[in-house]
């Protein structure tokens, strides 16, 4: 991937995230904190409970594949040309590279366990969703208490199927005062 394409993907995710979380809630209720919004939501509903369930199932499928050391299953949730940015900032391009990286990540004996939690699914358009969540990796060579993180995914309906087109993972900073 070129630097320009990576930067374009980052800007796209940033703009989509900013717009998604700046909009009024889909349920018509006031946002958390009791602040009223001046922009009522109009037009057709974005996404459906069925679409949200499918997107949540993609996250579960990735987690199951990762924990089973099944790179093919984990990578199958991604679009052919998906982009993944890992916690170190390394960019993986395309489902084939994702599968290769996941397969070479570690042996089944030393592979850590991954636990993903979906915190929000926000539909930008009926066929585009922004998904935020938290993660916990335990075991393997991850020091105890230092495997927590968060992630953001852009999912898109392609050919009638939901796929991840962009994902970015980030590690949470270690808790203050450890090791002192």
Q: What is the CATH level 1 assignment?
A: Alpha Beta
CATH architecture classification: Roll
Q: How large is the radius of gyration?
A: 17 Å
Terminal-residue CA separation: 42 Å
Q: How many structural domains in the coordinates? A: 1
N-to-C SSE string, H for helix and E for strand: HHHEEHEEEE
Unreliable runs: 1-43
Class by alpha and beta content: alpha+beta
Main beta sheet: strand number and arrangement?
6 strands, mixed
Mean pLDDT over the full residue set:
78
Number of strands: 6
Count of separate DSSP helical elements: 4
The outline comes out as: globular
Helix content: 25-40%
β-strand percent reads: 25-35%
Concise account of the structure shown:
The protein has 180 residues and is an alpha+beta fold. Helix content is 30%, strand content 32%.
Structural commentary:
The protein has 180 residues and is of the alpha+beta class. The chain has one domain (3-22, 47-171): Nuclear Transport Factor 2, Chain: A (Roll). Helix content is 30%, strand content 32%. It is built from four helices and six strands. The chain has helices at residues 3-22, 49-67, 71-75, 94-103; strands spanning 78-85, 91-93, 113-125, 128-138, 148-158, 161-171. The protein has a six-stranded mixed sheet, sandwiched between helices. The longest helix is centred in the N-terminal third of the chain and has 20 residues, at 3-22. It is globular. 22% of the residues are buried.
């Amino acid at each position: 991937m070129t630097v320009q394409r990576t930067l374009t993907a980052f800007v796209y995710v940033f703009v989509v995230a900013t717009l998604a979380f700046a909009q009024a809630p889909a349920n018509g209720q006031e946002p958390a904190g009791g602040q009223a919004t001046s922009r009522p939501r109009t037009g057709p509903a974005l996404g459906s409970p069925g679409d949200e369930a499918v997107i949540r199932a993609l996250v579960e499928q990735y987690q199951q594949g990762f924990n089973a050391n099944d790179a093919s299953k984990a990578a199958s949730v991604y679009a052919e040309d998906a982009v993944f940015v890992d916690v170190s900032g390394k960019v993986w391009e395309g489902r084939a590279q994702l599968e290769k990286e996941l397969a070479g990540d570690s042996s089944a004996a030393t592979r850590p366990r991954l636990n993903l939690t979906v915190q929000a699914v926000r539909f930008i358009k009926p066929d585009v969703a922004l998904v935020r969540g938290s993660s916990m990796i335990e075991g393997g060579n991850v020091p105890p208490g230092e495997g927590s993180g968060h992630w953001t995914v852009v999912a898109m309906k392609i050919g009638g199927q939901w796929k991840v087109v962009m994902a970015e993972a980030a590690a949470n900073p270690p808790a203050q005062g450890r090791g002192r």
